[in-house]
Design the sequence.
């Protein structure tokens, strides 16, 4: 039945396939080459300093063909108001200059003389 010589021999196992090792080596080698190329590009070929060139400012829009009537009218009204305000200020300056030319208070007359052009307030008189 069983041969005594066959019992002494170890049972041979089937050889393991080598294709997983070969495939793993190829994929691993490809990944190492890809990482090396990527690192080489990153270190040596990418631009180190990014210089941004600023474009010139865009041209302003063209001016309208003529002045706007509403704006012109508003500006003229402003000018008229400013002229009226300036006239009031000039009148006030002239009145103050007239007061300076009039007799001012002195040791003999501490109250001074009232200006000839300025009306005296009604209802109040000077008390001595």
Sequence:
């Amino acid at each position: 039945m069983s041969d005594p010589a066959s019992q002494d021999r170890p049972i041979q196992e089937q050889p393991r396939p080598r294709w997983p090792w070969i495939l793993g080596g190829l994929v691993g080698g490809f990944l190492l080459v890809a990482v090396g190329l990527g690192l080489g590009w990153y270190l040596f070929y990418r631009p180190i300093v990014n210089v941004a060139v600023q474009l010139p400012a865009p041209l302003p829009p063209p001016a309208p063909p003529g002045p706007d009537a509403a704006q012109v009218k508003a500006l003229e009204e402003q000018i008229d108001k400013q002229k009226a305000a300036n006239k009031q200020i000039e009148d006030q300056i002239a009145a103050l200059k007239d007061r300076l030319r009039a007799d001012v208070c002195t040791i003999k007359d501490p109250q001074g003389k009232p200006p000839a052009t300025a009306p005296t307030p009604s209802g109040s008189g000077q008390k001595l």
Q: What stands out?
A: The CA atoms of residues 10 and 102 lie 143 Å apart. The mean pLDDT is 80. The helical segments are 4-8, 19-45, 69-101.
